[in-house]
Amino acid sequence: MDVTNPGDEPAPSTKRHRPNTPITKGPSVDDFTPTTMTLDAFNQLSRNQKKKILRQELWDQRSGEFREKQRAKRSVLRKRHKQRVRLGEVPAKRKLGEQERSGHKIIIDMDFDDKMHDTEIKSICSQLVRCYSTNRHGPLFVDLHITKLHERCRARFDKAIADHTEWPESRIKFHDTELLDVFGTDKLVYLTADSPNEITELDTQKVYVVGGLVDKNRYKRLTLDKAEQMGVAHARLPIGQYVQMASRKVITVNQIFEILVKFVEAGDWKQAFLEVIPQRKFNEGKGGGAKVVKGAVAEDAEDVDQDADENTDEAEVSDDAEDVSDHESSV
Prior knowledge:
By secondary structure, this protein is α/β, with parallel strands linked by helices. 34% of the residues lie in helices and 11% in strands. The protein contains 9 helices and 8 strands. The strands form 2 sheets. A 6-stranded parallel sheet has the order 3-2-1-5-4-6, sandwiched between helices. A two-stranded antiparallel ribbon has the order 7-8. The longest helix has 40 residues. The C terminus is likely disordered.
């Protein structure tokens, strides 16, 4: 029933209206002529395969424009960060010469190329970029080693993160050999959530291994089985002493690395976990979730992930690094 008076003006709408501009759609696979194969070969493919080729060719055509926009966006963020530094809102970044070497050694085992989907390959490569960024900007840096990049990870780095060859080896060293060829078995400690052992300290005489894997929990005991097959020591981080989680502890590779670096700096596991695990994950639970013990705040039992936009103006990463997604096989 209409209860407004005839002379009343209608209330203004609160909905946001788009301008009257035509909506442009991309080409359909039915009208698309590929440039990387013959039309006859293209027509023999399934519709999903056609869409994949269409998306790739459109990206190849538009990637230059996209990257220019991303560079402009990063330029604005850098200027904003410099202004915040001048105002004293955030600390200034340390230059390479201002850091001190801790003597600790961490190696990321990249021997899992065949265990990941294409999107996971992009994710793990981006996580390596973030590890490098973390190792550049703290008061202390560790010796960060990366084992041999296999087919798809190598292609990803060569295409999207080509400047990695110019990164200083003092902050990240890429090897052309596998794990056991880099360090002896007596020095290695493979960090895996499935290990019954728990570390309490980080020994400068040991080399701590993190599995370079994004697997969405498809592979149970994968890193533990590998450690046992190689005959090397294994252990898990002491997360259970400080964070009580109702589900499996899930941390991305770059978060694992940052936790280790934070512990090297402060010697405090609790502080390292609380500084690295995204704070938005705390107090999300509606009962039955997880909590941080020893006086810390509550945390829900969802997966701990890394927001790709967090600290964007602090992290100096490659122009083409993709967003970081979950590494669901934590330590």
